[in-house]
Amino acid sequence: MNLNLTGRRALVTGASRGIGAATARVLAEEGCSLDLVARDTRALRRLADEIGSEHGTAARVHPADLRDPDAVAALAERTGDVDILVNNAGDIPGGPLDALDDRAWRRAFDLKVLGYIGLTRHVYGHMSRRGGGVIVNNIGASAERFDATFIAGSTGNAALTAFTRTLGGVSLRDGIRVVGVSPGPVDTERIVSLLRSFAEARLGDAERHAELTAAFPRGRAATTREIADTIAFLASDRSAYTSGTVVTVDGGMSAAASV
After folding, report:
1. Architecture of domain 9-251
2. pLDDT, tens digit, for every residue of 192-215?
């Protein structure tokens, strides 16, 4: 499907690996030029070089720690011409309430929750003045499938779901669409760390994490490409009447839990 994204510029945070890197590749395939953000400068430059070689697409690199509000504001000023913002940077830790201290909560929320909100606030203003744009928030299915062994993730993702739906409900007045994607388990480096934490909490043994993977739909986690394709579709004009919606991509796990 031609998503009609040729010539648009997309800003992707957390782009050095995982879903962020996969999203950057898919958007490049669809003809977008890119602004790539993460703390790992070397990984960003490697990705930008690969995208340029494979697709002939320009990719600007912006090393930044989006926990810092000043860095968020500076990034928005440098990239004020973007048509698409993909908020993706986040590393909320697993664990139950008694495993996470105040520092862990604040560090997690400063990046994923307040980082998403802060960058959206700045970029939204630029988009509004330019006449439109699309903001896609990569959230997480724990927002609706609550998990006490991932309590910080469920809490933070629920907040971002509310933020996305609330802003997206009125944003078309400014010509802007705000949407979200909530993946379940995705085949990334991060999932292994989280599954070990879950296995420790639920099974009493972190080394039994493979048992949790076997119970997933189709016996596997989602691929990063499956999530990236969803993000790209939502960012495109093929989804032009979609705003204030969060699409869950978890093989039906959340639906099954509600039955």
Report:
1. 3-Layer(aba) Sandwich (3.40)
2. 777 777 777 777 877 787 777 778
